[in-house]
Specification:
Layout: H1 8-14, H2 16-24, E1 28-31, E2 34-38, H3 47-51, E3 55-60, H4 62-79, E4 83-87, H5 88-94, E5 102-108, H6 114-125, E6 129-134, H7 140-144, E7 147-150, H8 163-179, H9 187-208, H10 211-221, E8 226-231, H11 236-250, E9 253-258, E10 275-279, H12 286-298, E11 302-308, H13 312-315, E12 322-326, H14 334-353
Parallel strand pairs: 3-4, 3-5, 5-6, 6-7, 8-9, 8-10, 10-11, 11-12
Antiparallel strand pairs: 1-2
Helix pairs in contact: 2-8, 2-9, 4-8, 4-11, 5-6, 9-14, 10-14, 11-14
The structure holds fructose -6-phosphate.
Fructose -6-phosphate binds near residues 62, 160, 366 and 367.
Protein name: glutamine--fructose-6-phosphate transaminase (isomerizing)
Enzyme class: transferase
Organism: Sphagnum troendelagicum
């Protein structure tokens, strides 16, 4: 089943061009020679209600929460509805207010996560419209929600989620496009995103070529105690998810940090030893990331800069310890590209450190007890 690969996680990372293709298959509508819009069968009768909701809540745990975070800004931009992020366990601990006028979107690869499922029962009891985004047809969350989207990423066996994460972002991006389709002013933006969705599998193929570079980086980092990852905007999710991958499989402490918070504490950790990855690909926030890089350099930070191909000198004129150069897509799709080198890095770190890649210590694929 693993084919030519040594581990399921490795196979699933390299399968992403195909899993993303499957996620999009039959969902992009052609109008003349061009793809014009998206069709999500499980959502189409509910789009009007969602557009009219007072608020959208994204609810999930771990990686699935990060996928929601990666698409939050686009859903807000194209629907005009504010989006609140909720970790399922925290929503339940607080019994946070949920209203009949809310749309609650439950993101779960397995569709069986206990906290997410309990949050679904809670939101239903409050009268919210409940939408599922799952990878498992017939799962408890798929069955219990009023409507939803299957991400169709295919079976994921490695405990660390990889291809399900990128497919969740692709599926929720299509959901944002569907929510925005009644708005004329966003037409060219939506068309540009659709064009890049079509390019996505090829761009992922391109970024997978960084495999050897990530193995080399893993060799350099394998003895480290800790790794920080700074991101912002669309790539705050990349920072959190990249750090989660490294911590859960390579058993190395790693922390994803919102770069805008750097001066409010994390800066104190910076010295010439602690490796720091800064995600600074081209988008509306990259000027701010340039200034973060300068401040980290001024403190002699050991920087690894992830930037758009060809931007290394621009983003970091004084050089860095290492660059990870990735292809460019529309800003909202960039998290799908940017997570891939982190997945590869986490994989190689784990193999080099001698840990179990597919079954990390103390973790289960599906957390069915809260
Ligand atoms: C990490 C990972 C977990 C899951 C989380 C929720 O790689 O896979 O953080 O994302 O346990 O699981 P699902 O998505 O099945 O609800």
């Amino acid at each position: 089943q693993k084919g030519n690969y040594d581990h399921y996680m490795q196979k699933e990372i390299h399968e992403q061009p195909e899993s993303l293709t499957t996620t999009m298959r039959g969902r992009l509508i052609h109008g003349g020679s061009k793809v014009k819009g998206v069709l999500l069968g499980g959502l189409k009768d509910h789009l009007r209600t969602i557009r009219r909701s007072r608020r959208i809540l994204f609810i999930g745990c771990g990686t699935s929460y990060h996928a929601g975070l990666a698409t939050r800004a686009l859903v807000e931009e194209l629907s005009g509805v504010p989006v609140t992020m909720e970790l399922a366990s925290d929503l339940l601990d607080r019994r946070g207010p949920v209203y009949r006028e809310d749309t609650a979107i439950f993101v779960s690869q397995s569709g069986e996560t206990a906290d997410t499922l309990e949050a679904l029962e809670y939101a239903k009891s409050c009268g919210a419209l409940c939408v599922g985004v799952t990878n498992t047809v017939g799962s408890a969350i798929a069955r219990g929600t009023h409507c939803g989207v299957h991400i169709n990423a295919g079976c994921e066996i490695g405990v660390a989620s990889t291809k399900a994460y990128t497919s969740q972002i692709a599926a929720m991006t299509m959901m944002a496009l569907a929510l925005g389709e009644d708005t004329l002013s966003s037409c060219s933006r939506r068309e540009a995103i659709i064009d890049d969705l079509i390019n996505l599998p090829d761009k992922v193929r391109e970024v997978l070529k960084l495999d050897n570079d990530m193995k080399e980086l893993a060799k350099e980092l394998m003895e480290e105690q800790s790794l920080l990852v700074f991101g912002r905007g669309y790539n705050y999710a990349t920072a959190l998810e990249g750090a989660l991958k490294v911590k859960e499989v390579a058993l190395m402490h790693s922390e994803g940090i919102l770069a805008g918070e750097m001066k409010h504490g994390p800066l104190a950790l910076v010295d010439e030893n602690l490796p720091i990855i800064v995600v600074a690909t081209r988008d509306a926030t990259c000027i701010k990331q340039q200034s973060v890089i300068q401040q980290l350099q001024a403190r002699k930070g050991r920087l690894i800069v992830m930037c758009t191909k060809g931007d290394a000198n621009l983003m970091c004129p004084n050089g860095s310890y290492r660059f990870i150069e990735v292809p460019q897509l529309q800003d909202c799709l960039q998290p799908i590209i940017n997570i891939v080198p982190f997945q590869l890095l986490a994989y190689h770190l784990t193999v080099l450190r001698g840990f179990n890649v597919d079954q990390p210590r103390n973790l289960a694929k599906s957390v069915t007890i809260s």
